[in-house]
Amino acid sequence: MDNHKTALQNKPKSKTKALLEVLTVSTKLGLTSFGGPIAHLGYFHDEYIRRRKWMDERSYAELVALCQLLPGPASSQVGIGIGVIRAGVLGGLAAWLGFTLPSVIALALFALLIQGSNMGGAGWIHGLKLVAVAIVAQAVLGMGRKLAPDRHRATIAILAASAALIWPSVFNQLLLILAAGLIGVLFFKQTEDREAANITVPVGRSFAIVCLSVFFGLLILLPLLRQWIAVDGLSLFDSFYRSGSLVFGGGHVVLPLLERETVSAGWIGNADFLAGYGAAQAVPGPLFTFAAYLGAMTGGITGAIIATAAIFLPAFLLVLGALPYWNALRRSPKAQGAFIGVNAAVVGLLLAALYDPLWTTAILRPVDFALASILFVLLVFWKVPPWLVVLAGAAGGIIISGGV
């Protein structure tokens, strides 16, 4: 119980004050958190844990572990979880809003700026495609080292990548994830962690069951409603909700799902898709706000709002549904084994996305490979901030294309 006293000793007496405090701090993070999910967790630790002591170190580590195991954007889910623990369900909403809104606005405005401007062949757009190749290659390398470090998990990753490329479909990706989870249960059972810290949250199990029921209910019903009701907004919501629900690993792993839901559906061109993905690296906040760009390209401001709400809603429902059960889940060897298998498959799915659509549409000439390699080295070995790499890629694209 000492851990919980430490985590809550700084809690304000007023709920309104707590909400405003969460919104203020998360907005600061939303304006300054560059560098992707891993960097975001570092920013969160510095601001929420080290400086403000809203949670103790062990509870924060447990919350991060939970969110990394759930589908969805892990860093955003950690922020939501901290907001919930600090100020209840509305606190989770405030934490998400502050962290997400700055990049949503930036990417929606970028979409409106280039929409209809026929910039698909522009040099800087091509440079952004090459930035996307370098950044996803960095993600594959980092995730592979962490989630598929041995021959068994590496084999799962390669088999998943091969299957995803040979039989490309969202349904196939779901089957691959389920199969990897079953393999994990059978072969990667973990030792029970009896010393894991408990996380106390102001959310009851009854409310959690409601949230999980809504999550699965929407996942099943939205595709059916989409067939019965021909409304563009409903189709958009369904596509982005499903993408947010089926992403294990967060961040860059959403790329293949969104590509199939938007480019393959004819909503957006491949060049515009990759340009937006590259631009998403230049703004702070979660990568899932790429949905705001895609929504704006598809349906203007209304589309951006629908897409953003839809892709993040599963994250909310899963965090609220899982937190009350985390203490039991953390101690289940079978659950831990399943997550190990799933994470290995996720590496494979991201590897497949690196090849198609990224590599096949961006690396067309030797000079493209050369520039993408330089950008990769800047990211991985020189540790250059992603936003600077984005600028370098856009400039390089102009140079190798012979003009803007």
Automatic annotation (TrEMBL):
Pfam families: Chromate_transp. The chain crosses the membrane at residues 93-114, 126-144, 156-187, 207-228, 303-326, 338-355, 362-381. InterPro entries: Chr_Tranpt_l_chain, Chromate_transpt. It is found in: Cell membrane. Coiled coil: none annotated. Keywords: Cell membrane, Membrane, Transmembrane, Transmembrane helix. It is a multi-pass membrane protein. It comes from the Bacteria. Belongs to the chromate ion transporter (CHR) (TC 2.A.51) family. This is Chromate efflux transporter.
